[in-house]
From TrEMBL:
Gene3D superfamilies in the cross-refs: 3.30.420.40
Pfam family, one: ROK
Organism annotation: marine sediment metagenome
Name of the protein this chain belongs to: ROK family protein
Entry-linked InterPro entries: ATPase_NBD, ROK
Length: 143
């Protein structure tokens, strides 16, 4: 593909995005990205329309249009990687919530008293169930 034939750019970011402006509102995994207007930067560089969206929301849309979600009007796509997030499809449409953070389930506070063991980092689901936290726990157990 030649750059001249490129019509638009879409970027999936592990963050809460202001969809109207393309500005990153919150990026816990990339703290220095907060308030970064990625849309503005890329549009000025490439001079074509740029769309910025949460990465897991894009995965949910991909499943809705091309994957296992094709036959469902409502579903939740959950991704567990460095963080934990969800893309929510309701009545065939992506649901972002009032501030764009509807799928940020990694920050759900869980009841740690019922885990059956003591923990240092109390609270967020992501502290216990992300790939990074599971990897750290496995390394501790091996040693």
């Amino acid at each position: 593909m030649r750059w001249g034939s490129l019509k638009a750019i879409c970027v999936g970011v592990p963050a809460v995005i202001d969809i109207g402006t393309g500005k990153i509102i919150s990026a816990p995994l990339y703290g220095n990205w907060k308030d970064l207007n990625l849309k503005e930067i890329l549009e000025s560089e490439f001079n074509i329309p740029v769309y910025i969206e949460n990465d897991v929301n894009l995965s949910a849309l991909g499943e809705k249009h091309y994957g296992e979600g094709k036959n469902f009007k409502d579903f939740i796509f959950v991704e567990i990687s460095n963080g934990i997030g969800a893309g929510i499809i309701i009545d065939n449409h992506l649901f972002r919530g009032s501030i764009g953070s509807a799928g940020e389930i990694g920050f759900t506070i869980i009841n740690i008293e019922n885990l059956g063991f003591k923990v240092k980092n109390k609270g967020f689901l992501e502290k216990f169930a992300s790939v990074e936290s599971i990897k750290k726990k496995a390394i501790r157990e091996i040693r």
